[in-house]
Amino acid sequence: MTDIGAPRLSTRQLARRRRAASYRRTWKAFAAKRSGLVGLGILVFFIVVALGAPVLASSRGLDVTLANGPVLGPPSSHYVLGTDENGRSVLTLLIWGSRISLFVGLAATVISMVIGTLLGLVSGYFGGWIGRITFRITEWFLVIPFLPLAIALAAVLGRGLFNIVIVIGVTSWPSTALLIRSQTLSIKERAYIERAEAIGAGRWHQMGRHVLPNVMPMVFANTTLTVAAAVLTETTLSFLGLGDPTHTSWGTMLDSAYQVGAITTGSWWYVIPPGVCVVLVVLAFTMIGQALEEVLNPRLRARQ
Questions:
Q1: Pair 183, 214: CB distance under 8 Å
Q2: Burial class (CB within 10 angstroms; exposed 0-12, middle 13-18, buried 19+) of 304
Q3: Whether the Cβ atoms of residue 83 and residue 71 lie closer than 8 Å to each other
Q4: Coil, helix or strand for 81?
Q5: What is residue 160's DSSP assignment?
């Protein structure tokens, strides 16, 4: 029985309540995945370090002219992780480098998700020559090896922070486009799409109000995996000397360590910390992405 005296909720209020209930169910299912929680904890730690860099370490420690430590000095009470070839604290470089590495990973992923989602929707929903052209473009980018294409674009655009973001963003979207295309093809055949078309809803209305909201869970799950690949790509490009020399990142630290022969001289404190940070961040995003995929993908939920 319903309470006659209870206030009647509006359509928006009902939608908000359903959305909140859906978020709670999703979080409860995600919290049941131990690997996802571990990855989230690691990621939160690095985000706190990146945001709190000005508090944790002075930016003056990045200035080569102000460095007064020993050259490639080992860890000590004053320099916990030793020093680099310029006498700067490796710990300071590591803390400030987290900002650039995470920024590049997140910014490049936004570009990749926007391009991949739009092309995937258009390719999957529209038929005819529009769908064929967008699908062929996606296939063309998939055929070309990712890393050589990124290296070529980075060499053409030049060494710059935003250039690296653009390079990674415009070369890492094809897998997202294929995923969204397959989801769109499935959703397009469902009954509520036919009903929306029968009552006069246009194609763009159907895409924006019916198709896009249903593919967004897969977009979110794929985003975390794409961030991991973007962070790793930034590290690779910086290690190859294509990063921004005016900003310190974990990749530029590894490149500098290689250039001064830190491995051959036994200066492990200059190589291992940035490498471990890259591995942990990539691992964190991968664990979160796999947990989200298990939670949001109905097929994977049915197998459990």
A1: yes
A2: exposed
A3: yes
A4: coil
A5: -
Write the class of the CATH domain 32-52+89-298.
mainly alpha
Are 98 and 105 in contact by the 8 Å Cβ rule? The answer is no
Q: What are the tens digits of pLDDT across the range 9-66?
A: 666 666 677 777 777 887 888 888 888 899 999 999 999 999 999 999 888 888 888 8
- C-alpha torsion angle, residues 256, 166, 212, 288 (rounded to 10): 0
Amino acid at site 8: R
Among 276, 231, 242, 284, residue whose Cα is nearest residue 94: 276
- What is the C-alpha to C-alpha distance for residues 145 and 119, in angstroms, rounded to an integer? 20
Please identify which residue in the block is written with the tokens 């653009």: 166
Residue (of 182, 172, 129, 159) closest to 249 by Cα position: 159
User: Running DSSP on this structure, what letter comes out for residue 207?
Assistant: I
What's the predicted TM-score (pTM) here?
Answer: 0.81
